Amino acid sequence: MVALLVFGVTLLAAVLISELADRTIVSTAVLFLLAGVAVGGGGFGLIRLEPDSPVVGHLANYALVAVLFTDGMKLGWGRLRSAWVLPGRALLLGLPLTMLATALLAHFVAGLSWLDAWLVGAVLCPTDPVFAAAIVGREGVSRRLRHLLNVESGLNDGLALPIVLGILAVGGVAERSLGLHVVELAGGCALGVAVAGGALWVARLRFFGIARSHEPFLLVAIGLMVFALAPLVHANPFLAAFSAGVTIATMRPEETEENNAFAEQTAELLKLGAVLVFGALITPQLLHAVPWTGYVFAVLSLVVARPIALGLALVGGKLTGREKVAAMWFGPKGFASVIYGLMVLNSGVAGAVRSFNLVAIVVAGSILAHSSTDVVVARWLEPKAKAT
After folding, report:
1. Which pTM value belongs to this model?
2. Which residues form the Cation/H+ exchanger transmembrane domain (predicted)?
């Protein structure tokens, strides 16, 4: 109950300063992170959690499934086909280059073994648009830049997951073989398409009629069914949620635009709760356990690895100079990285604790840096976006 009270108080504070946050560098995500640090083991000790605590894993899983589901509902196949070039470059070239650059930094700067370095590179290559909300959600920013960041962040979580599982399997520390992981991932995609497609087909039958007041719950029901069915049929719940969202956006794009507000708000609450819990994990012990080379790695992974990788991927792309700089900078790390980091922590890899500590430092630094600069960069972009 203490955790729920802290979350409620922090949520109230976030609501009260939300208008200020929309206009300044003040960030509600940072507020929840700092609140978690304050009440966690490194602060007043009201909430004491360890990275392997069940509540951490459960909340992170719920948040990521909700994020992937709502991200998918923004990315119907028609929309993807209409403007695929820039996101395709970011995903097919920028993502592996980011992973490569991060892995090299993790090995040569942070001193990780090659296996741990590649794992950290894979864990930290996904991006999260939540911490750059002023960019993705601001109408004054060009559509092509918003589309690029939306599609990239919507798809790279799912692309990074099989890489993480594959490295663990090749390293001999995964619970299941690489082949079983592939089957699980493919099963997740199939499950999401089947459940979402079947539910929407049933909803169209003349026998049924959905009241307008209940329309948003159709999407929530699909998401809950996919999440509950995935473990029962040994399918990956994350890819199942994402493919279900894409299926909804493809079959009924007009419905997702009108009725996904409830699903997005639910996902936002889960994400903010996950940020609070993540903040509670940032203790003096964790900070002290990271050597100075780890902090150098964290800075370089944010200001060198992603910018250089995406800059190379976008060479020749139809973006203005300012748009390219914004895309290179806004590669925020979020919930996917935390969850994949927890997978590594529980995998039995020799350097798992050290790897997770590095991931935690990078994610915390990303939340602070990207959430505090999105409004500034958005205003910098807007004059150039009016003609786009």
Report:
1. 0.82
2. 13-372
